[in-house]
Amino acid sequence: MSDPSSPEPLKITLEDLASVVAPEPSVSPVAAALPGAKNYGTITDAAEQVAPSSAEERGSIFLQGWFYLGIAGLVGALVGWGIAEPGFVDGGTARWGNVVMLPFLLTFMCMGFGIAESIVERSVRKALLRGVLSLPLGLILGFVFDVMANIIYSMGLRLCYEAGAQSHHNPAVWIARGIAWMVFGAAGGVVYGIVGQSSKKGMYGVIGGMIGAGLGGVVFDPIANLTTGGAPSRAIGFALVGIATGVGMGWVESALKDRWLYVTSGPLAGKQFILYKSETTIGSRQESDIYLFKDPDILPRHAVVQISGARVQLKATGTVFCAGQRVQTRVLQDGDLMQVGRYSFRYKEKHRS
């Protein structure tokens, strides 16, 4: 027999359940007051994030390697031309400008390639260090490779003349210059790899630089023919050589990369950091391989990505979230999403057939 003093059991009907309304999510007054403002997220947001948003930020064109290396080549070529042009003489007895024109061109192109990436990453200190290193390297290689290019060009012209091509209006002569000037592109790639402390980076730079400088050399004579020679033709021709060399280096580097971190959100969204070295440092120090700025939560040496054979491992000193979970050590897999402060990175690998 039931106890008459016990309370009646609680009854919930379907009508009661249907009347329940979930509370609306709260909206930050700051976010509400600033429609359209970018929000890079916080560490707390990262902890709650299990799956990445499909709407990832698109990066600026200024963060693409082919673009900023092309601009660096353009500026470097024009600086070298501008210094040597006052001492250059068309025909007659050569002056000092005739001697230093191409070496100076290569010197400042190499310097541009060396510091361009650091400038894009807003690491002024690293840019200064790389500039100090690349300037003397470019100057030395400029004179050495100028001799090599002249030897190759002389041999090419001799072959052209023997084949009956004895005018600079003949495409065979254009090709001879292009082949000779591939040497300058190779020099730019060498300096690019040295300041980047990576032989693989240097190899990609050499390949891309040779392709770009070769194409620039091929169009140099046609430009001179169209502009009737002189300083304007040299300025335009050398500018195109500088652009082509930088763009070639950037395209080859991107095409041949095998492991990289792509910034999906944050101030550097759209930038890719190719993992060349066995140990890539991430932190707030400007000398870091991946310099993360304007975030007080990021330590000077926040994390390290280590490569050993086919194994790529993340080791975190500071707070890092991966797939929504805080990690200290993790073997990275293709597609892993990492959050470091307000920066998000996607780890990518090139699939081999």
* Secondary structure category: alpha+beta
Give unreliable regions as ranges: 24-37, 39-56
- How large is the count of helical segments? 9
- What portion of residues is helical? 40-55%
Q: Order of SSEs, N→C?
A: HHHHHHHHHEEEEEEEEE
Distance between the termini: 76 Å
Q: What would the average pLDDT be, to the nearest integer?
A: 85
What fraction of the residues are assigned to beta strands by DSSP? 15-25%
Structure description:
There is one protein chain. By secondary structure, this protein is of the alpha+beta class. Helices cover 51% and strands 15% of the residues. The chain contains 9 helices and 9 strands. Strands 1, 2, 3, 4, 5, 6, 7, 8 and 9 form a 9-stranded mixed sheet that branches. α7 (171-195) packs antiparallel against α8 (199-226). The longest helix is centred in the middle third of the chain and has 39 residues, at 124-162. It is elongated, with a radius of gyration of 29 Å. Residues 24-37 and 39-56 have low confidence and may be disordered.
Please describe the topology of this protein.
Blueprint: H1 14-18, H2 29-33, H3 43-48, H4 65-84, H5 96-120, H6 124-162, H7 171-195, H8 199-226, H9 230-256, E1 259-265, E2 272-274, E3 279-283, E4 290-291, E5 303-308, E6 311-322, E7 325-331, E8 337-340, E9 343-349
Parallel strand pairs: 3-4
Antiparallel strand pairs: 1-2, 1-9, 3-5, 5-6, 6-7, 6-8, 8-9
Helix pairs in contact: 4-5, 4-9, 5-6, 5-7, 6-7, 7-8, 8-9
